[in-house]
């Protein structure tokens, strides 16, 4: 009789144990299931469009919409840009020549940054790099610092290195490790001066040309599809090359800046 009672108690304990384990597993499953679509860093369902501009509705984040421009955009009516729900501009301050390696200031940099600030837009800058050594990256950073020294920036300084379509470049033979070290050398120089930074790249560049895990900066992603193939974290998304904004003739890149609250 006692043995039967003990067996019943043992069976009851086992049933309780199984139920508890099942409950724990269910809770863990719920807690690790996120709203992220297709294992993307962000919940893609939270992205949408309003008045032709991308939005991101997630209470954990704040967003700003901006454009990135250079001398290629020609003359810009910055007051008109300001009235188009654009809050910031990433302005090219300069570049290194892709073949000969000389440093150049963007011919429209000064006029763009002065007029954008006067119109009440937040401003950041980007630099197009063709550095092939860490020493050249530091040289570029120092040149950028000299270009922006007279201006208060509200947005980051971005490092942009990329392959040129249909054109050879002095960076073509760099290894993944070398490009990573070059980006970090530039970024480190700017951070030491108190600037926020971004490293720009499309999905292919960020996945195959640099070691993102070793990049000491936030990422500025270029991807023109609503279905993101890039699954890692990024802070700015250049989501179209074909944007239309008042004050700019022709197409312009439009960006969404995403910050954790």
UniProtKB/TrEMBL annotation:
<dbReference type="GO" id="GO:0009253">
    <property type="term" value="P:peptidoglycan catabolic process"/>
</dbReference>
<dbReference type="InterPro" id="IPR017853">
    <property type="entry name" value="GH"/>
</dbReference>
<feature type="transmembrane region" description="Helical">
    <location>
        <begin position="12"/>
        <end position="30"/>
    </location>
</feature>
<dbReference type="GO" id="GO:0016998">
    <property type="term" value="P:cell wall macromolecule catabolic process"/>
</dbReference>
<dbReference type="InterPro" id="IPR018077">
    <property type="entry name" value="Glyco_hydro_fam25_subgr"/>
</dbReference>
<comment type="similarity">
    <text>Belongs to the glycosyl hydrolase 25 family.</text>
</comment>
<protein>
    <submittedName>
        <fullName>Glycoside hydrolase</fullName>
    </submittedName>
</protein>
<dbReference type="GO" id="GO:0016052">
    <property type="term" value="P:carbohydrate catabolic process"/>
</dbReference>
<dbReference type="InterPro" id="IPR002053">
    <property type="entry name" value="Glyco_hydro_25"/>
</dbReference>
<dbReference type="Pfam" id="PF01183">
    <property type="entry name" value="Glyco_hydro_25"/>
</dbReference>
<keyword id="KW-1133">Transmembrane helix</keyword>
<keyword id="KW-0378">Hydrolase</keyword>
<keyword id="KW-0472">Membrane</keyword>
<dbReference type="GO" id="GO:0003796">
    <property type="term" value="F:lysozyme activity"/>
</dbReference>
<keyword id="KW-0812">Transmembrane</keyword>
<keyword id="KW-0326">Glycosidase</keyword>
